Amino acid sequence: MHFELKAIAQDGRIERLDVQATDETGARAQATGMGYSVLTLRRRAMLLSLWRPRSERFPVLLFSQELLVLLNAGLPLGVAIETLAEKERHPSVRAILNRIAGALRQGRTLAAALEQHPGTFSTLYIATVRASERTSDLSPTLTRYIAYQYQIDAIRKRLVNAAIYPALLVLTGGLVSLFLLLYVVPRFGKIYEERSTDLPWASKLLLYWGQAVEGHAILVAGALAALGIALWYVLTLPQVRAGIEALLWRLPVIGENLKIYQLARFYRTIGMLLRGGMPLVPALNIGAELLHPVLRGRLARASLAVSEGRTVSVSMEDNGLTTPVALRLLTVGEQSGNMGEMMDRIAAFHDEEISRWVDWFTRLFEPVLMGVIGILIGGIVILMYMPIFELAGSLR
Q1: Bridge pairing between strands 37-43 and 14-20
Q2: pTM (2 decimals)?
Q3: What's domain 138-396's architecture?
Q4: Which residues is 37 bridged to in the sheet?
Q5: Domain range 1-52, CATH class
Q6: Checking CA distances to 88, which of 47, 67, 101, 391 falls within 20 to 30 Å?
């Protein structure tokens, strides 16, 4: 979710921030952790987030790629960012780059400069850069982050592509059903009304609907539009979305795969942070932001156990944050001392598992959805023609 915050910066300036977090508590914690005192907080409307002009979005991935190229070419960090600002065309992006370059000229680190823009750079990105500053390997860190982002985007695009065809089926079926109910049924109702045919009860319901549409078309259209807007608004409420998510998490197959998807993203993130030189417990705390609240509490208990000296594999297993494969690989990582690479392998294995499940679920769900839509449209058509069938039977 996106949240808009009005906060007081450390230098006394009042700024507006755009923060991405799972809930209001997380958004407030992000701003507070960066030195801001939050005055007001509100959730950004979903439609405004979707229609936000591209020129206002800072291209973090493109920025990382271009910065990596300039650093590998031998340019100092400050000069590289100034070069990116000079060639940038969008004023808002150029302003951010100039502020980052100005902070570097004042002697701040890159992570500290990025912290001044919490709505632009995620906590994960800032933590990754800060870890690289301890080991002076910014270029390898940017390389790892770019690879990480490509892998995350690949899984996300796969899920989105799997949802496109079912969404088109639902849209087409809904439009056909509305056409039948709003245009065809009222005309059939006129025919049956004039002939005073003895209609079945289900066909009478369609007749009454047709009469209502014919006599009060504007009122019916307004009621349908209001119902659609109300339904959309209800679905955007955090409480309703949380309830739907909780219901999905309780479903046997879907809930388990949602957990695996979250754990795959979590392990990939922790692996990247560990390979960048960040200690394990701080990396776990940063990775908590990627988890569903159901798993976040478990991770807090596991992180506490790790800080008390217990092994990662046992702590994760005791709190339900592993799978059999993940547990074995975590054990191997502890024995070899290469925990970052093992977590990357866990994420890669579960990404493949999620991809296979998405393919299987799509192949199963699409025919079922087509069948449901076909039954709905076919039922409306049969109810319209049922009196004609009965009349033909009586003539025999």
Answers
A1: unpaired
A2: 0.65
A3: Up-down Bundle (1.20)
A4: 8
A5: alpha beta
A6: 47
